[in-house]
Amino acid sequence: MAFWKPGGKKPEASLPLSAEVDREGPGDGGGRLVMYNRNENVALQTQRERLPIFKTRDAILHLVETRATIVLVGQTGCGKTTQVPQYLVEAGWTAGGRLVACTQPRRVAAMTVASRVADEMGVTLGAEVGYAVRFENVSTPGTTRVRFCTDGVLLRELMEDPLLSRYSVVMVDEAHERSLATDLLLGLLKKVQRRRPDLRIIIASATIQAEEFAAFFDTRHLAPKPAAGEATSSNAPSREPGIVSVEGRAHTVLIHYLEKPAPDYVRASVEAAIDIHRAEGPGDVLVFLTGEEEIEAAVSMLQEEAEDNSQRLLGGGAGTNPAGGPERFTTHPLYAGLSPAQQMEAFRPAPRYTRKIVVASNVAETSVTIEGVVYVVDCCFVKQKAYDPTRGMESLLTAEASRASANQRAGRAGRVRPGKAYRLCTEIAFRDLPETAPPEMIRSDLAATVLQLKALGIDNIMNFEWLSPPPAANMIKALELLYALQAVDDDARLTKPLGMHLAELPLEPQLGKALLVSGELGCVQEMLTVSAYLQVQTLWVSPRGRQKRLDECRDRFAVAEGDAVTALNVHTAWCKAGGAQGGGRAKSFADKNMLSHRALVRASDIRAQLARHVRRVGLVVSSAGKDSAPVRRAMTAGFFANAATLAPHGGGAEGSAFRSVRGGATLFIHPGSVLFRARPAMVVYAAAVRTGKEYMRDVTAIDPEWLSELAPHFYAPTQRSGNERPADAAAVF
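Request: output the structure for the sequence above.
Response:
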């Protein structure tokens, strides 16, 4: 694969030396490496002082003292994520039992940053420094002073403590990503700050959006509203936000581009990683792909290459390549669907004389440092949500990454030493990429967001202050769905107890409804399993060239009732093989049946967490045994709005065509579903994905009569003659 800088000499080797230099750093990094490693000979304090942010430490603390809100702009690798929380501790902001919260858009970042900061502070992770992510809390009440968490976790904490009374400072990190949870959190923090003038908010971003954030939090024109019994202090901080910019990053990064576009970026990424391994000096490789399926495919290809390489080296001892790099390598995936223990494997140092290749989604894009990474391969694509309010359909599409995202990825190579980034696009194509990605708020289903706002007592959601207001059509559609789920009443107020319980569950509203209804249907055990398995993206491993064997393995568990019941069969068989505690036996079972052992372990962990949640809301954990009908009825009760009927004469080589009951859209069953070749009369689906066609995923075959039985407020039986198909229901909502 040829990388080169247009205008220069074309490369003769697979990886040329010519490249664009990212010169935003303070130098070429020729001095001692700044590495947060307990084995480093440099004193920890010296390491911290070498970071670019140290020069602005006093300015940051002064602004925190005098301003209610500050906007901190710092380049990737400047140290803002790890150092600012420590500065706040050193300045006394955690005295008297108060806490500092630092939010991250992704769970991996929250976990790894917490671990790093605990190391730097010389404390035990989970004690003075802790983290909290969905389905996992590693912190100690009364002891933890710095708490790293995802945006979503802090949003849920707002439901229990609307004023965040435990916190003195909330730092919203990587705010430039503009995730749905981040934008919602920013709007809520603005409301909290009016009632709590003493609360400090730090908005940290790696891109120049300071003026936009500052304007949003500028409340000089608004009178503060102290909480009951509190008086407004004359020493209250200024409500005019302060802005501070951190210049430079720790190390420089060389940027390489492709000579010509790559037709298959997954294979091109694998080839680039192998070329780097063969031609470059010591240092680990981080490869960015868009999602779980691509990552697992790339990992399989790299593992095959590693096995072939090991055979060639057998008996030859540990060798090096011409550039002095190791000849052996190991491969590790990194994406959100992995369990925390599996994710941490990517952060462990590689064995001696071995290079580590990590294949990651955008979970590794921000606030994550993988020690040893020197080379980054960027596919220049990303998975993005796209929501069609007309059809009420949310899809996950592969789209071009933004230049801001690409710069974040490149920055992963310059965290601990000078590095190189290889972009799988031409330089001209890179310049044509959008500057930033559109906020998730304007391209998402907002049902879960509206539910959270309602649970927080914010009924007039149309007047809620957003950094970027969502489309009115999306808000209306969200209210319609929540009303259909009976989560809100005729006055658009949260229902009790159903609406409140839905808001408490860490699931999408439709799946949450299915789980809650399972209590009435006597299948809570089964729906806990189904709900957990729907949280992992891919259950099956599908390496290239082995589709026939994959089909055979899937057929061992597949049933005509659909993917939910098939997942139950897989879980039952896996548990018989030992399950999460089965060690090698369970792993062998997964490998034999082409199942992802990582996904199985992750689903098991989630199931245990959900079981605690359902007990908290008062559900009796019952079981339907081998009867699948209650499970399918529960899925119908939650996903009735996602019903589709078999279209007449709609069969073909690419699967049968279906027609959505609501809207009449043409849909197809996804090839990854066990029902891909089947022709059930009616189905409900958990999600839709648009990749040329609109595919239904996680499909369950249902009885058409269940729609009017379980959702009579939404559907009514059609009047039909004796020769009409009984599969249709008419939407009346």
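The first strand starts at residue 20 and ends at 22.
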